[in-house]
Design a protein that fits this description.
Mean pLDDT: 86
Number of domains: 1
Radius of gyration: 15 Å
Strand content: 25-35%
Largest sheet: 8 strands, mixed
Oligomer: single chain
Structural class: alpha+beta
Helix content: 25-40%
Number of strands: 8
Low-confidence stretches: 1-7
Number of helices: 4
Distance between the termini: 31 Å
């Protein structure tokens, strides 16, 4: 299944994820995971998202790192997994610190790529072998797409997270 990437997160995406994360907290059901396109989440002009404690200027470094990775594997798809919702000084934002990478590169190549960075050194890089049924990609129009539908057999799935 194809997915579309927007240039930044739009209000429909924001409203959908806010409702989902609020419902997750109310129900105390933490088994559902949400992914966004890296371009939507890492937009350096959008303070609605916080990646690895970098709300604005710092996101550009991660975006540049991802663009470099896409230069090595043009078929790769890269997502950000959302962890939760914060409310700071009456301002809501969502936060994450994990990239999900669908790539034809090997795990060794992915690790070499991420560990060569001196500034954005990740805490862990590994292979994801199982998609929980409760993991969804939130498209630019707010549609929930099961992440298993995004997978094809030509790619391996990796995670990369910063602590």
């Amino acid at each position: 299944m194809e997915f579309q990437e927007a240039d930044n997160m739009n209000s429909q995406q924001k409203n959908i994820i806010l409702a989902m994360l609020k419902n997750k907290e109310i129900s105390k059901n933490y088994t559902t995971n949400y992914w966004f396109s890296h371009k939507d989440f890492l937009d350096p002009t959008d303070n609605f998202t916080d990646f690895a404690c970098e709300r604005l200027d710092g996101k550009q470094g991660y975006a540049a790192l991802i663009e470099h990775l896409l230069g090595l594997d043009e078929t790769a798809k890269i997502f950000v997994q959302v962890y939760g919702l914060e409310d700071h000084n009456n301002e809501q934002f969502i936060y994450a610190d994990t990239l999900i990478i669908f790539s034809k590169l090997s795990l060794t190549e992915i690790k070499q790529f991420f560990y060569q960075s001196k500034d954005l050194f990740p805490s862990d890089v590994g292979e994801e072998t199982d998609f929980p049924q409760s993991t969804f990609f939130i498209s630019d129009n707010g549609k929930r797409i099961p992440c298993a539908e995004l997978y094809d057999n030509d790619h391996s799935v990796y995670y990369c997270w910063w602590d």
